[in-house]
Amino acid sequence: MATKALLLALGPALALGLGRFAYALVLPLMQGAWGLSYAEAGLLGSANTLGYLLGAFLSHRLLGRTGYRWGFFLALLLQGAVLALTGSGGFPWVFALRLFQGFLGALVFVGGAALLMTLGGSGRALGVYYGGVGVGLLLAPWILLGVGSPEAAWARLGVFSLLLGLPVLHTWPLLREPPPPARGEGGLGPILPLLLAYGLYGAGYIGYMTFVAAAVGEALLLFTLLGVGALLTGPLWGPWVERVGGRRGLFHVLLVLFLGSLPPLAQSLPALSAFLFGLSFLGVITALTQAFRALLPPSAWPRAMGLSTAAFALGQAMGPTAAGFFAEVAGTGEGALWAASVLLLLALLPVLPRQRP
Which regions form coiled coils (predicted)? Predict the structure, then answer.
């Protein structure tokens, strides 16, 4: 199971680590070579988030029709081609491709998680899968090392994404389709508080990720530690959520994330803040998935994964705006970090541990 999770983890690594987060590394080249304004840069970021949101809402129905295996692998390989083509046109072309890549990224993320859950993956295996995003965060700077133009940068990201996606094909014979929904089961009422917490987490997490480098500097160190911490998601949070349960584990990981995001820590000990944040931000989805398995029948897991990803994407779309507003009010990047911390604090409330009678 560990080997399967390790190979499937290349899905999030490529679709999110390279497909989404590497955009921040290519952006300075795009601004220098194309004269891209900050407003246009923000629109391209929003396009990717919007595509991810649409993909999350449609993933359950679309993957159910095509088959989760076909949908996962097709989206994974196709998004590499989309990345390679992103630097070959004007702004409308880039906007459309960033939108499409976000859509494909959601299919990869949701599809791979549903396939792994169907295999009976443990909390540790799920942690390894989600922690794959950290692999992409670490690989992206090295893939782009020495690149001199946005066209070459996108081409490199696309080629490496395609090449690194090929080993994932070896998991095809081992994977099984999730069971179809059964009538009369799979109501999502028990997980609504979890979806609320996950949406608030999405808003707070992206607020920190967007503004921490601007607020405290040391971008290279911070993103390296974020990636290293993310790689430890499986070994740390996987066994813990198996021990305490998904809901309690979700509270614990959100608490660590909140503490790591606090501006006093980020400004006085930025390396520790980034490491704690990286260690925990993917542990949230590990715990959430474990909670789904405990609260819902297997036939409802894929739909729950799609809706949770949509809740996350919606929060992620709103988070930078809220954080940016508070930064403007405060006149400093510290205001954005405080906004992110408050959102993460609010995410704790729906999953507060229940007192036993």
Answer: none
Taking the domain 190-352, which CATH number applies?
A: 1.20.1250.20
Phi/psi of residue 9, each to 5°? -65, -15
CA torsion angle for 318, 324, 329, 334 (degrees, to 10)?
Answer: 120
Q: What's phi and psi for 124, nearest 5 deg?
A: -65, -45
Q: Find tokens 């679309």 and name the residue.
A: 62
Does residue 56 surpass a pLDDT of 80?
yes
- Position 285 confidence tier, pLDDT thresholds 50, 70, 90: confident
Which pLDDT belongs to residue 343?
92
Q: Are 323 and 210 in contact (CB under 8 A)?
A: yes
Three-state secondary structure call for residue 321: helix
- Whole-angstrom CA distances from 300 to 86, 180, 188, 248 are 36, 8, 8, 21
Distance CA 85, CA 82 (A): 5
Q: Which amino acid is at 286?
A: T
Amino acid at 6: L
Q: Provide the mean pLDDT of the chain.
A: 83
Task: Evaluate whether the domain defined by 1-176 bears CATH number 1.20.1250.20.
Answer: yes
